[in-house]
Amino acid sequence: MTDNIIEVRDLVKHYPVTRGIVFKKTIGQVKAVDGVSFDLKAGETLGVVGESGCGKSTLSRVLMNLEKPTAGTVHYKGQDIAKLSGGALRRLRRQIQLVMQDPYTSLNPRMTVGDLIGEPFEIHPEAAPRGSRRDKVKELLDLVGLNPEHINRYPHQFSGGQRQRIGIARALALRPEVIVCDEPVSALDVSIQAQVMNLLEKLQNELGLSYVFIAHDLSVVRHLSDRVAVMYLGKIVEIGTEDEIYERPTHPYTQALLSAVPVPDPTLRESKAIIRLTGDVPSPISPPSGCRFRTRCWKAQDVCAEQPPLLEIRPGSDHPSACHFAEKREIVATHEA
Amino acid sequence: MSDILVSEQSAPGADGSGRPSGRLLEVDDLRVEFRTRDGVAKVINGVTYHVDAGETLAVLGESGSGKSVTAQTIMGILDMPPGFVTGGQVRFHGKDMLTMSAEERRRIRGEGIAMIFQDSLSALNPVFTVGFQIAEQFRVRRGMSRSDAKKRAIEMLDQVKIPNAKGRFSNFPHQFSGGMRQRAMIAMSLALDPEVLIADEPTTALDVTVQAQIMDLLGELQRERQMGMILITHDLGVVADVADRIAVMYAGRIVEEADVYDLYAKPAHPYTLGLLNSIPRLDEKGQQLRTIKGLPPNLMNIPPGCPFNPRCPMAQPVCRETVPPLLQIGTGRASACHFAEELVNRD
Q1: In sequence order, what E strands does A265-325 have?
Q2: What is the ipTM of this complex?
Q3: Quick one: which of A28, A195, B1, B62 has the most CB atoms within 10 Å?
Q4: Where is the ABC transporter domain positioned along the sequence (chain A) (predicted)?
């Protein structure tokens, strides 16, 4: 497996829930990520979808080495990132960069665009000699479609979409191999969202980047991803190529999620069968036994409460799905159907 | 129903069903500006729309298009200053609400027109229980006793399908999940049985599976009560599922108004066309998305002529000079584009 740039194995991240101020005692664990494995190949986009609270953002924080995993490993090109320190860690940080969701709060309002995008060079001076930095920043501005003349402006002088471009330029400054995008377009208006998505695609083609693309919008994820992982309550319930997940989903949760996405076509109103899920996502502090989706699943049997289903390829399907009763079902309504 | 509403029932279209039908709410050439230190922002520049009983009008637009400010003006909750209504009317059953006394307007709020807000966590008062906030309306507006009001509030919570409504009555908003809070908001806005419901991005903060539940619930309650609904949203998917008619807003103007099927099949304004082209679709795989170039205009400095002309692929010299009026094209649809006919008639 030489072309896997990131390998995640049985990753677990729990946060303690404490009570008391002086005598803190742990009364439970928020099981934000609870046993997640996947690979990211060089040059591909892995989409991660799921509803709020499913652990997508915690996953991104562990991938960025901002949080140490409770158990399990993340390997970047064969190195366990949690074990790195000193110079090796600094070198790693150059290679994996993050684009954040909110372009309004993720940029320091007191810094100019030039300072913001040039800041990575302060931390990694080896990436660009001091004299050439301003030119590098201008190149980056040009690369993300902003006017290089605007290098001295402040973030508030830009619109949301432009600020997200600044965030992207900053992530690109150190020429990383992997960019983790955590909901990069969800704060943007539709017409601007499309511009930023096209930019991300263009940059991937030009620079050979790998993306981990985290989002809750299934249409956006389909548009950009080569492979997709669907998460529910800290676990991946189904993973496969974009076609496998969207055309041949086998996990009931994926099917329900896909059926709930409104399709911008009023003529499909009648032909669309929406699978209604009842209730809310259970608390990640005390997830249900066995299969975590069973409390909202229409297929749930006794076995679902007893045995957690493994994420594996089952007969009649071509990709891994964590359901005892996985079966294909066509969900996405199209005109041909 | 209060006296004022009864006296208004001579409005056209009133039938014998006990509930006035026909045109409930009309916004007519509304103009609003915000006067700030930095200048005057013309936020609403002549908006006209109406909603009838039992109908869902979707007001579609991006941030800054003025869709929410229009709703706030209708409800009379616009911050003034900095906001100023500089022209137009908002008629409820034919009577202009902008010239009414504060007392008259207050009586329409809740009973005539109610509103659901986007962010249920900040719209609910965190220091009172959810039940109290719903029951309060029955006590203040209907003069009910504490225990009767509680009974009605529990009924309302039950109607919006909150499980264990009785037990949930005394919960605080933070004890509810996002979807349940939105349900509680719906219960609160429907408590006094309004004729028009304005839903301002009611599902934007929610996950898709919960969004589907809430939109279903709203549709069901609307059909039951024959309410007129104004759904304010930027989501073209949600609109396609629930709307009857759509008004598309851009830079404080309606640029297109049409039946939902017509609008998606043959948009009559380049902005609508651009929006439809720029959304990634679940049933289509990734090619390059066709985007609308550029940015929405600064409302303090709206370009002369058609406000969309700097971003429009079809723009001609006339677009930079004359503001295109919103004109009828065919039945029941209107477009504010000089080249609307060409756009609709192309293949």
Answers
A1: none
A2: 0.77
A3: A195
A4: 6-258
